[in-house]
């Protein structure tokens, strides 16, 4: 009697364990894809190494994203991204994005997501390596820092271009028709030198002769599209735009602007 009871008990435990194991296996089926996966490839184009990083993220709610970063070796990088929904049963991956839907063979093994891609009748395997949440955050932080550095470099380059365009002499003239003014021509002259110093001249003329000629020296700098003129501590800011032989200075506070012409 005791022997029969023991057999029944063991059978119950085995059956319970079997169905519990199956239940857990069913629950985990397809879940192994959840997380972030990365594939990095390098190609050589025009003597430069082009690095392409594909980052796929699969969320538990069957949504995901694909972001592709391309570093062409020119000091900058471009990126493109799209979102999708997906289903994965352990061997087949279905992705539904705004512009396409696709089903591919896929499986996860030893921390590697393998996706089979068919191109012109040929099948290629693309292997994505799983990365942790910490690694993903670190990647994002590094890319953000690179983007900020790139933006700073671009701003510095644009600033240097504006400074180089400014070098030279510029004049803005106004003819005066009021006979009581005491002069018939007013010249506003700005000269920029390569060492970021300059000269500002105000000239009043009557019949080609100077009635008054005032010269003031300054230092200058450019930040973005803002020109700063420093007259011995008194700083004046103007929005600057150079178009060929025309220089337009605009006062940001009231929008008043003058357009100067480069002198030969």
TrEMBL record:
Signal peptide: 1-21
Amino acid composition bias (Acidic residues), ranges on this chain: 148-159
Domain of life: Bacteria
Keywords, sorted A to Z: Signal
Residue ranges with Basic and acidic residues bias: 136-147
Keyword Signal applies: yes
PROSITE patterns linked: PROKAR_LIPOPROTEIN
Region (Disordered): 136-159
Protein name, UniProt field: Lipocalin-like domain-containing protein
């Amino acid at each position: 009697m005791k022997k029969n009871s023991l057999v029944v008990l063991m059978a119950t435990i085995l059956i319970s364990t079997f169905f519990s194991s199956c239940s857990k296996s069913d629950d985990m089926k397809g879940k192994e894809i959840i997380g972030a996966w990365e594939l990095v490839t390098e190609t050589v184009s025009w003597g430069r190494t082009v690095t392409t990083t594909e980052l796929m993220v699969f969320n538990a709610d069957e949504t995901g994203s694909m972001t592709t970063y391309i570093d062409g070796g020119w000091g900058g990088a471009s990126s493109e991204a799209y979102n999708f929904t997906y289903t994965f049963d352990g061997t087949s991956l279905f992705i539904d994005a705004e512009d396409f839907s696709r089903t591919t063979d896929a499986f996860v093994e030893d921390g590697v997501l393998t996706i089979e891609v068919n191109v012109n009748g040929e099948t290629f395997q693309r292997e994505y390596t799983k990365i942790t949440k910490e690694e993903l955050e670190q990647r994002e932080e590094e890319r953000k820092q690179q983007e900020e550095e790139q933006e700073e470099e671009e701003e510095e380059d644009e600033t240097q271009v504006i400074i180089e365009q400014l070098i030279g002499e510029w004049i803005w003239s106004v003819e005066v028709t009021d006979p009581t003014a005491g002069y018939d021509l007013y010249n506003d002259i700005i000269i920029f030198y390569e060492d970021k110093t300059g000269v500002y001249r105000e000239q009043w003329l009557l019949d080609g002769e100077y009635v008054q000629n005032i010269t003031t020296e300054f230092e200058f700098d450019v930040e973005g599209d803002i020109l700063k003129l420093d007259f011995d501590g008194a700083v004046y800011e103007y929005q600057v735009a150079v178009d060929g032989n025309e220089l337009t200075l605009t006062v940001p506070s009231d929008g008043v602007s003058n357009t100067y012409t480069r002198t030969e």
